[in-house]
Design brief:
By secondary structure, the chain is an alpha/beta fold. It has one domain: Spore Coat Polysaccharide Biosynthesis Protein SpsA, Chain A (Alpha-Beta Complex). Helices cover about 30% and strands about 15% of the residues. The protein is built from ten helices and 14 strands. A five-stranded mixed beta sheet has the order 3-2-1-4-11, sandwiched between helices. A three-stranded mixed beta sheet has the order 5-14-13. α2 links the parallel β2 and β3. α6 crosses α7.
Length: about 300
């Protein structure tokens, strides 16, 4: 199984190195976008020995939370993947604070038996996790952050491009080669679509979803991002620690977010502890014939919520 990992890294360079090492396998390829403020990630990676011909790094896109940079950065990774003529079966979008909670062999097996399906949390707009049409109806300029966050909106309505039906969901995904090929072809044929999204509010939660759910591949998209996130405790994703070992061990997801520098301790504990049986990886595609539009269970923030 040949998996390309696009990783968006915003902080904790040492943890980024460990993530790459944890995911490394003979068929792996890494395309890493490093926030321009974290240039020292390059030095950290070089010192740890994982920088190689299979690892590409970029600081080109300014990936401010809520802005188009969070679309541009993975697009640059995809562009490099095709530019380098890399053979791949799946391309995965992660953050630098994700970490695998299943062995790499199990991740590869899960994808290999998925029959070319893609995995991303999706729902029609308006509704679901990405609520409200205001995001796409008006032009937005946003920077989320403290203490200098700001948001500008031009209150002049505009039409969604190309007569498409808008879809949204979590920013992160596991795309089959066919799905990635379609995204690439669609962008090349419709540059106006990308221009439109430069002023969509939090566009990374809508951009890829709308392309694929308006395509012939829509029935192959499973509304499951295979990623454990806990939104139940606070406004931001819960940072997993030693007290969450059982939750991580029993989760059917493939990766989890959010970790800090204690991730090494957590991974060692997961591998070493025999007390809690590891739950096998499980996907949530619906095998019922005739299913045409996968749905999500709503936008409630829970341990299985998708947004990151």
């Amino acid at each position: 199984m040949r998996i390309a990992y696009v990783i968006l890294a915003h902080q904790l360079p040492e943890q980024l190195v460990r993530l790459v090492c944890a995911l490394d396998a003979p068929g792996a390829r890494f395309l890493i976008h490093i926030n321009p403020s974290l240039g020292r990630c390059r030095a950290a990676g070089g010192a740890s020995g994982w920088r190689s011909a299979r690892t590409w790094c970029s600081c080109a896109a300014t990936s401010l939370l809520g802005g188009f940079g969070h679309v541009q950065a993975p697009l640059e990774g995809l562009d490099e993947l095709y530019r380098s003529e890399t053979d791949f079966d799946y391309v995965v979008l992660l953050t630098g604070q994700d970490y695998p909670i299943k062995p790499i062999a199990e991740i590869e097996t899960t994808l290999a038996r998925s029959d070319g399906r893609s995995f991303m949390a999706v729902d029609r707009l308006p509704g679901g996790w990405v609520d409200g049409m205001d995001r796409i109806r008006y032009r937005h300029w946003r920077r989320i952050g403290r203490p200098r966050g700001w948001h500008l909106r031009l209150p002049i309505a505009r039409r969604f491009p190309l007569g498409l039906e808008p879809w949204g969901g979590s920013s992160y995904w596991w795309l089959s080669r066919a799905a990635a090929d379609h995204v690439r072809a669609f962008r090349a044929e419709h540059p106006s679509y990308t221009r439109f999204f430069r002023h969509v509010d939090v566009p990374d939660e809508i951009f890829f979803h709308t392309i694929l759910m308006n395509s012939p591949l829509r029935d192959s998209v499973v509304s499951d991002e295979l990623r454990l996130v806990d939104w139940t405790r606070e406004a931001l994703p819960h940072v997993f620690g030693a007290a969450d070992l059982e939750v991580l061990r029993l989760s059917p997801k493939l990766v989890a977010r959010k970790f800090d520098v204690t991730v090494r301790e957590m991974q060692r504990s997961i591998r070493a502890s025999p007390q809690i049986p590891r739950s096998p990886a499980r996907t949530s595609w619906d095998p019922a014939p005739g299913t045409s539009t996968p749905t999500t269970s709503g936008k409630a923030r829970s341990v299985t919520s998708a947004r990151a």
